[in-house]
Amino acid sequence: xxxxxxxxxxxxxxxxxxxxxxxxxxxxxxxxxxxxxxxxxxxxxxxxxxxxxxxxxxxxxxxxxxxxxxxxxxxxxxxxxxxxxxxxxxxxxxxxxxxxxxxxxxxxxxxxxxxxxxxxxxxxxxxxxxxxxxxxxxxxxxxxxxxxxxxxxxxxxxxxxxxxxxxxxxxxxxxxxxxxxxxxxxxxxxxxxxxxxxxxxxxxxxxxxxxxxxxxxxxxxxxxxxxxxxxxxxxxxxxxxxxxxxxxxxxxxxxxxxxxxxxxxxxxxxxxxxxxxxxxxxxxxxxxxxxxxxxxxx
Amino acid sequence: xxxxxxxxxxxxxxxxxxxxxxxxxxxxxxxxxxxxxxxxxxxxxxxxxxxxxxxxxxxxxxxxxxxxxxxxxxxxxxxxxxxxxxxxxxxxxxxxxxxxxxxxxxxxxxxxxxxxxxxxxxxxxxxxxxxxxxxxxxxxxxxxxxxxxxxxxxxxxxxxxxxxxxxxxxxxxxxxxxxxxxxxxxxxxxxxxxxxxxxxxxxxxxxxxxxxxxxxxxxxxxxxxxxxxxxxxxxxxxxxxxxxxxxxxxxxxxxxxxxxxxxxxxxxxxxxxxxxxxxxxxxxxxxxxxxxxxxxxxxxxxxxxxxxx
Amino acid sequence: xxxxxxxxxxxxxxxxxxxxxxxxxxxxxxxxxxxxxxxxxxxxxxxxxxxxxxxxxxxxxxxxxxxxxxxxxxxxxxxxxxxxxxxxxxxxxxxxxxxxxxxxxxxxxxxxxxxxxxxxxxxxxxxxxxxxxxxxxxxxxxxxxxxxxxxxxxxxxxxxxxxxxxxxxxxxxxxxxxxxxxxxxxxxxxxxxxxxxxxxxxxxxxxxxxxxxxxxxxxxxxxxxxxxxxxxxxxxxxxxxxxxxxxxxxxxxxxxxxxxxxxxxxxxxxxxxxxxxxxxxxxxxxxxxxxxxxxxxxxxxxxxxxxxxxxxxxxxxxxxxxxxxxxxxxxxxxxxxxxxxxxxxxxxxxxxxxxxxxxxxxxxxxxxxxxxxxxxxxxxxxxxxxxxxxxxxxxxxxxxxxxxxxxxxxxxxxxxxxxxxxxxxxxxxxxxxxxxxxxxxxxxxxxxxxxxxxxxxxxxxxxxxxxxxxxxxxxxxxxxxxxxxxxxxxxxxxxxxxxxxxxxxxxxxxxxxxxxxxxxxxxxxxxxxxxxxxxxxxxxxxxxxxx
Lengths: 298, 309, 547
Known about the structure:
Structural class of chain A: mainly alpha
Order of helices and strands of chain B: HHHHHHHHHHHHHHH
Shape of chain B: flat
Number of helices of chain A: 13
CATH class of chain A: Mainly Alpha
Oligomer: heterotrimer
Structural class of chain B: mainly alpha
CATH class of the domain at 89-254 and 284-308 in chain B: Mainly Alpha
Strand content of chain A: under 5%
Shape of chain A: globular
Number of strands of chain A: 0
Radius of gyration of chain B: 24 Å
Order of helices and strands of chain A: HHHHHHHHHHHHH
Number of helices of chain B: 15
Distance between the termini of chain A: 17 Å
Largest interface: B-C, 70 and 69 residues
CATH superfamily of chain A: MetI-like
CATH architecture of chain A: Orthogonal Bundle
Number of domains of chain A: 1
């Protein structure tokens, strides 16, 4: 459906030259103000996260029990939690875990999901059937038990967190990609590519995946925030980070308990998550448009 | 084509078998047993309990027995709720979960598709940004945040809706459905908008426009069909996710659904309950994925052709 | 655009419908309003009961329902917790305090009108002790002669067990050792009489899976009978007309709502869905709000319980008593209780809380950072140098997390040692404790009955509940002696000895004594706070403008 029936072989060949594709894309991206905002915001956020220990005004686990939870003030811009810990500091430190989990786990999910879906969708037949039934099996397994086992067998580590999240998030991605690829693979330009004698790998990487970038990017930008939140559930089960370390997800889930008493404990971490999400979406839309094979002509 | 779907349905059997086998192994590997409690039970009592539930048999025998009973439609007794059978619990928990999931899905589809279409028709305009921003809030606010917020606002504050309960008064299904559906609405809105953008630049839409068809007709007759493909692919997993992931909403609103049991069973090491609910949800997931495949094929003529070859 | 208009119209229609629906529901009575009109008490009951078979279930919410349905020989007074005659009208205790002879009330009856007989008790207690049934609370009956032997299969002849029906209304119980708190135990669900005919009709008497507790089948002897049981939604009990004291029961019924989320529970209370919350805890952050805005609704009661940290004696350096003492002396319990827990908890400097029965354990230590540092230095870790980093294990829970966070910080600041937090899901946490796979772990204990032995027996080296690897034969001896001692003062002296040994050896670190936090509407009368968190609905009623 995302093809151009009248596309010429010359155009096809042009896309094969990665240089022009990415360069064009970046130029287009630069023109999109929202996407540019998204890119800049995310870059700033990543810098903040990396240098959090240097930038944060307090130590992330420094308690002041007698101070307790206080609303935002000059000393504590985003208030303090019930342990008297500085909220801004904890959000900055939390961004390290959350962004890392968000990006790495999503990247893992993306890699497996796109490959799996493309191969299944393009191969069709038995290969497709078996691959998609494996997806079905994994979908159906009780996730909680799986996580509990992971923690017990392998102990705690941040990599396990990526693994656990990647293990579930790639499934939906695979299904979406497969659906798109199946729709595409009967198109003339793919058939043309086949007749040109391109290998399956070349067809998949050069013709199929670029043409389904839209849904992939959209779904990816949606996956990142849900992964960031999933982390808090996993931490709850004992996997992932342990207190006093913080993450946006855990700050939000603790904050929700005190919505009425200490609203700032929910508002600020939610704000960071939300703005990040919007930035991701702007960037995602921008990328989608930028990489769209047709957009240059529109 | 029919043959393809028939084979697809048949393949559910090995899938289910694998799910049962793997789950069976997983739950037994997990530390802690169904009868562990803070005060240690005397070994003699524990031995008796294990005997009564045949947990002292070799695992292979237990698995075989479980399968045999399963084929007879017997999911066994629950360990956590000893006087009840798993079948009984699933049957009582199912209607609220299905109902909640259905309302949430309808809400998500309605809000998601209409928002996505609106946004996709006039990209990068106010008509795009405002609805999409509202839809995105659904993702920023996970159900465990949105739920309490809605309750405090519309339940306790405005007193429009009850704060909890299910089926006791007409309004008590509104907030849970919105809470559960919000995140999915945002996903669907995004996917629809993306699909719309792709479709609206297609030649056949341009042709339709050139012919002077009204925008409503273009959307209704031509664009939607293509734009919804990614949504349909997402709908299968979404429906399954709505059903098996409803425990947060069920807990917040105290809905007597199956989602609570699904999660609790894992924490309780309620072996039969874990297996029972897993098999049940697995069947649903397989079914929904199957249906979404069928619809995908249906809205895509090319795909339909290739399948019937 | 037309499509847009259509969508907008639909959205507005939807909003309008929503408003309409809500408009209707507004006029309905809340549960509390309905209950007040009909003398029906709505209770937020922590969780869905596992079962209503008293010999099978182990859950606290289950007992709340069960104690309304069944009645034992005695019943604990809600205010004083003193055992009072219930199904038994009177009793005689032999001089050696080993034989109890109970006389049942003539009018004690089951909800189907049949009389409650001594034989009913014998049959029920036999069922409770039958090994195949796997009653996890059978140990509560081990005070009866030979009960333990029968339950563990050492003997198979139930006649040897110390319970006999002398005639239809006379029951004789022989104990293994003088048990000063035995009359209290009789109000424990293990000792309640169960309806033999009903149980046998719906399955084998030693089968756990049975439908005898369903509303359509169950027969009970308490003030209420089961009317309906909707899983995860509602349990309704209504007045039992055949109850011997039915004319004095003021409540027409009780409705138990299984609300297993603390936040949801508070919201249910606030919005008038329940009269009171029966779970022992409430959302911590709401405490301050209620204290400030509606103190009359908040009930804070210190309970007969303790909260402590287990230390794994099989791991170095925790096998060194100086290290254990240093850890214990450097926790600022007052700050913890006042700034973090906020629920009126009491700092603990003894393992066992003081009680009204006469045990007043002496506090042999207090917070002393200087001494703690000195002890740690003597143990070879001056200023914490060289102390291995270790883990504080707790099960996933907001309170446990908060306590661990605060203590982690105190140990770091006061001793210079580094503890990491480790939360595990409940069953994994239990497994780690029994297999001694931890360094320091949190533990809380709520007494089953009002006697110090409850707590002291936890630390017996062979009891299976110590979970520390601590072995001290002198301690074991003292606690065993107390079990056999029939003289009250001597017994209390033995407990004090045990208390001293704990302070000297510090096998575990006492932290605080827990409280119950409940929300109770002010028109609920005769709902007494007590240290055992035990309530009967017999005297409770709802005060309304009408009465």
